[in-house]
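[09:14] KT: can someone run the structure on this one? pasting the chain below
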Amino acid sequence: MAHAMSDDQVAGELKKMTAFIRQEALEKAKEIQIKADEEFAIEKSKLVRQETSSIDSQYEKKFKQAGMSQQITRSTLANKTRIKVLSARQELLDDLFEKARSKLVDHTKDQGKYQDLCKNLILEGLYALNEDKVQVRARKQDYDVVEKAMEGAKEEYKKSMDGREVQVELDEKNPQPEGCSGGVSVVGGGGRIDINNTLDERLKLLETDALPMVRTSLFGKNQNRRFHD
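[09:31] RB: done, structure tokens below
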């Protein structure tokens, strides 16, 4: 027959049960805390990896953008520098030929040399046209010199062409325009063919023909050019 527990025994049992429940609760709470800490650590690590990856991606993107921007800037500066250099070179060449143009008139001051020059210019026109009759156009102030040059050209032409004569007339109706530096034009073909041997025209031809050589002499060879004139 079982005996009823006294109040002290009941209190003792309740105390044991309470302690057991409390211990269970503490252990459970500890497990929950440990698990929560582990999950937090995992989530934290995951977030850190994601943020690190995002930062790396952004850095790489910005690095590439900075690299492209730097390349564009270098290219822009290089082009601007190249344009400035080319512009400065062209100005120098223009100034060079302009100075040469301003000195053309000096070739007309020595009458003897100028007469010989005009003779050769006329003779060149005679050979080019190969006609029996031509006209010569000159500056009004050069008429006396040019007429003597015409006679010399006719004689030399006759000698070099085995006695063939050519009629050379001074076209006083159509003198060279104002501002012409000198020289002559030899006209044939009934006025349709004009061999322009004025000093101004010869300088223009020189600018075109000698420009590559002048450019190389002043600035050296262009290493970027694959073909040269």
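[09:33] KT: thanks! DSSP finds four helices and four strands in the chain.
[09:34] RB: yep, looked fine to me
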